[in-house]
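User: Predict SRPBCC family protein's structure from this.
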Amino acid sequence: MLELVLILAAVAVVFGLVAARRPADFQVTRSALMAAPAPIVFEQVNNLQNWDAWSPWAKLDPKAHHVFEGPEAGAGAIMRWAGNNKVGEGSMTIVASQPCELIRFTLEFLKPFKATNTAEFTFKSEGGQTLVTWHMFGSNNFIGKAVSLFMNCDAMVGGQFEQGLAAIKAIVERA
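Assistant:
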């Protein structure tokens, strides 16, 4: 019995050391070219009340509760959400909004894990099209580092970004 306890303790120590050595910083980036002018695409993201139409998380929990605060769009606009275990609970605040160029958010996750990250959308006009890039970055605490041993954040979140960009593309190209 003592041998088993010692083996389990050694495994836990090795796991902790491996997790602690994981990179703290992470980033996820995806882009899509849309056949629509930048002002049309920009408005889909800059007005938080538009997000339900294209957000991949809205599809994961259509009954999630949303509360909007501050201005309807642009810097200072806030969306708070509370949903099932797939979308969790948190808020996002637009902290910078430069028309047709950049929207930056502070994301505060409360559930299932507490975290604060930054997300950005950039818009680059290319003829009659717009290249939209969705970027999220932040730092992992020890638990985030440990989870990253088993889950690929870039693949998981990146896949959701790809779904969201495809949905925005469908909306703006129909307009």
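The two ends are 69 Å apart (CA to CA).
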